[in-house]
Amino acid sequence: MMVSRTDQSAFGRWWWTVDRWTILALGTLCGFGIILILAASPAVAERDRFDSLHFVRHQLALMPLTIALMFAISLQSPRMIRRLAMVGLIFGVLALAATLVIGIETKGARRWIGLAGLTLQPSEFVKPCFAIVCAWLFAEQKNPDSKIPGILVACGIYAVILGLLAKQPDLGQAAIISAIWFAEFYLAGLPIILVAGFALAGMGLVTGAYFVFPHFHTRVDGFFDAGGTPYQVKRSLEAFTNGGLWGVGPGEGTIKDYLPDAHADFVFAVAGEEFGLVICLVIVALFAFIVLRGFARLLNERNLYVVLAGTGLLVQFGLQAIINMASSLSMMPTKGMTLPFLSYGGSSLLALGLGMGMVLALTRRRFGTGELG
Fold it and tell me: Cα(72)–Cα(319) distance, rounded to whole angstroms?
């Protein structure tokens, strides 16, 4: 694409200030996502008594909306990103509370709200908005001219969201929210004694969750007991074994015929069987590149809010990918969490578009300068 450096239009300024390498990596992930949905979802759709392209059509309809959302958000200034996140967080927390009353119950959890025939998972949208708002609050605490008790407010918001997620329950999203909050708090200047205190508190919460939530108890026991390995994890490992180095070929895999969540939580296993170790390593490299590239763009940033916000969003993105892939490889207890841009899921896809659009906006260089903004 030829865009003149003297082009003063909104698109021209965006093109010369945004990180185009990150856009390329994100576009490649979206391409892999379409291929994997085509490979994994028909078998699942037929088992669920839909036509074979049911999930494919849904995902392909949402992908252009996700890309458009990412582009629109990436055009905004850090100040506008903060305003959008504040509005999004208010509605997101209200929707989280609503799931406890009018939410759709699935497997004992209330995480979704029915909306015009579709299902919406509010926690997916809360994560990026929470990262932005908390970053601003922590930065305000360091501003001598600000009268906002940033740390106190950020801790209060975190406690409310954590409580709502525990009531659903959704321990995976609670872990992601906690990682975002802790990473930003640490970079904002968390005393080392409190780092140790929060670490102990985290271990205490995990231990408590083991005894309070039966599904968490079962998954942990299954992980440490080789004979009790969950069915889906066994089939996932079998898929990676079958795939070998180069895979059995697109559409030729068989494990997806027996893997209930082949198109969602275990889409990485389908990639392993049909495309092999090499493509799996390429996918891992893409995730690593996006996260590390984002951190590299933030290294010279002088605005604390931008640094904290970008860090929180990148931690969310990278940790979510690690949890999904590690679960598929039996490296940690299973947790129903999508693989960014690759797994099926409308709420996840749109929320990731929102979050990565924010990353692109925050890591843009100011037009005509070397600064970020």
Answer: 25
**Considering only CA atoms, which of 319, 295, 290, 318 is closest in space to residue 307?**
295
pLDDT in tens, 248-265: 988 888 888 888 888 888
Residue 209, domain member (yes or no): no
- Tell me the two tokens of residue 350: 């749109």
Does 201 reside within a domain?
no
Whether residue 335 lies inside any domain: the answer is yes
Instruction: Print the domain residue range for 344.
Output: 12-189+231-362
Q: What is the pLDDT of residue 12?
A: 81
Q: How far apart are CA 205 and CA 214, in angstroms?
A: 15
Burial of residue 30, with CB atoms counted within 10 A of its CB: 0-12 exposed, 13-18 middle, 19 or more buried: buried
Residue 264's Cβ-count burial label (10 Å; 0-12, 13-18, 19+) is: buried
Pick out the chain residues at pLDDT < 70.
1-2, 4-7, 107-108, 116-117, 214-229, 366-373
Model pLDDT, residue 125: 95
> How many structural domains compose the chain?
1
Residue 119's beta-bridge partner residues?
114
Cβ contacts of 154-158, under 8 Å, gap ≥ 24: 154/181, 154/185, 157/89, 157/93, 157/130, 157/133, 158/130, 158/134
Q: Specify if 134 maps to a domain.
A: yes
Q: Which two tokens stand for residue 264?
A: 């969602």
Residue 371, amino acid: E
Per residue in 55-80, is it b (16+ CB within 10 Å) or e — as a string?
Answer: bbebbeebbeebeebbbebbbbebee
CB atoms within 10 A of CB 252: 11
What's at 320, amino acid-wise? Q
